[in-house]
């Protein structure tokens, strides 16, 4: 089964927030010897004009909210623009629709603020960039905000700390879905120093 990885983009998104996980999922797919595990694509409220990242990179998304496929893995990155988008009804409504059937919902950095605004984090643990922990706690008071973790896994919803933590989180997702060997092979190909999780301690017991 090929899982659709849908990465949401918006103006002033942090470039590494989405490019890091994108590379992890894409490289895992490129190195697969059997069925391709991931089909990675991008979505935004618009495709024209292009999305401009915080670092000035211009990106033309594949899809708009109106014609995007259902995500198996929905990735919501952060950046300065996340604080604007959490007040954008089009973004919030798109997230809410996608979450219903998504296998995994993954926020990177301050992308957690968008999930919080959409009500996705209610009753869960979550993390974000260390400078936004208090902001997330105020935005999502029903969420237990934790620091000092690279990522927090609640089952369907996974949140990561800031920027480079998105790479660790994506590798963890690969490990969770396909095992540590596949994730380590991807990390080695990227020449990224990463250690697999021995277990998933952040998933609350039912």
What does this structure look like?
With 206 residues, this protein is α/β, with parallel strands linked by helices. The protein has one domain (3-189): Rossmann fold. It is built from 7 helices and 11 strands. The protein has helices spanning 15-30, 80-85, 89-101, 111-117, 133-139, 165-178, 180-189, and strands at residues 3-8, 38-44, 51-52, 58-59, 63-64, 73-76, 104-107, 125-126, 144-145, 151-153, 157-160. The strands form 3 sheets. Strands 5-2-1-6-7-11-10 form a 7-stranded mixed beta sheet, sandwiched between helices. Strand 8 (125-126), helix 5 and strand 9 (144-145) form a beta-alpha-beta unit. Helix 1 packs parallel to helix 6 and helix 6 runs antiparallel to helix 7 (180-189). The protein starts with a strand and ends in a 17-residue tail after the last helix. The model is unreliable at 200-206 (pLDDT under 50).
What's the arrangement of secondary structure elements?
Blueprint: E1 3-8, H1 15-30, E2 38-44, E3 51-52, E4 58-59, E5 63-64, E6 73-76, H2 80-85, H3 89-101, E7 104-107, H4 111-117, E8 125-126, H5 133-139, E9 144-145, E10 151-153, E11 157-160, H6 165-178, H7 180-189
Parallel strand pairs: 1-2, 1-6, 2-5, 6-7, 7-11, 8-9
Antiparallel strand pairs: 3-4, 10-11
Helix pairs in contact: 1-6, 6-7
């Amino acid at each position: 089964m090929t899982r659709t990885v849908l990465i949401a983009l918006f103006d002033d998104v942090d470039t590494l927030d989405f490019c890091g996980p994108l590379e992890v999922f894409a490289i895992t797919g490129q190195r697969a010897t059997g069925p391709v595990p991931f089909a990675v694509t991008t979505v935004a409220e618009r495709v024209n004009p292009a999305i401009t990242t915080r670092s000035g990179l211009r990106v033309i998304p594949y899809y708009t909210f109106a014609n995007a496929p259902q995500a198996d893995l929905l990735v919501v990155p952060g950046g300065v623009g996340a604080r604007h988008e959490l007040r954008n009804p089009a973004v919030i409504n798109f997230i809410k629709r996608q979450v219903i059937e998504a296998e995994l919902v993954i926020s990177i950095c301050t992308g957690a603020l968008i999930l919080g605004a959409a009500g996705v984090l209610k009753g869960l643990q979550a993390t974000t960039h260390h400078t936004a922990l208090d902001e997330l706690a105020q935005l999502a008071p029903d969420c237990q905000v934790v620091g000092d973790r690279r990522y927090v896994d609640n089952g369907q919803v996974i949140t990561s700390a800031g920027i480079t933590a998105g790479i660790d989180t994506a590798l963890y997702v690969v490990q969770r879905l396909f095992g540590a060997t596949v994730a380590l092979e991807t990390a080695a190909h990227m020449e990224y120093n990463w250690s697999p999780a021995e277990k998933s301690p952040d998933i609350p017991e039912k």
